[in-house]
């Protein structure tokens, strides 16, 4: 009969390795956010760093500076929220069928 504590420790170590790999994968992922019907677009890394920003040239003629700034902020926030959702989904996949006590979440 195998030692239950040893098996649990091995399972925890395997999960830690998977978690590390998942973190690396998420950090390399890119997420696009947009605002103004696609007139302003932001591409952000899983590290929440803005990689690219695209502003439709028509905004420079039609919109005031304040509106453009609001659209950029909205696009960045959209990308941030998408990164967070992506991370939560991946963590849920990693946990799989693991039964965690109430209120306990990954990472520990």
Automatic annotation (TrEMBL):
Gene3D superfamilies noted in UniProt: Nucleoid-associated protein YbaB-like domain (3.30.1310.10)
GO cellular component terms listed in the entry, alphabetical order: bacterial nucleoid; cytosol
Cellular compartments annotated: Cytoplasm, Nucleoid
One example GO MF annotation: DNA binding
InterPro entries, A to Z: YbaB-like_sf, YbaB/EbfC
Chief location: cytoplasm
A Pfam family reported for this protein in Swiss-Prot or TrEMBL: YbaB_DNA_bd
Coiled-coil annotated residue ranges, if any: 5-32
Keywords: Coiled coil, Cytoplasm, DNA-binding
Highest taxon above the source species: Bacteria
Quaternary state and interactors: Homodimer.
Family, as annotated: Belongs to the YbaB/EbfC family.
Protein task: Binds to DNA and alters its conformation. May be involved in regulation of gene expression, nucleoid organization and DNA protection.
Protein name: Nucleoid-associated protein MIT9_P1135
Taxonomic placement: Bacteria, Pseudomonadati, Pseudomonadota, Gammaproteobacteria, Methylococcales
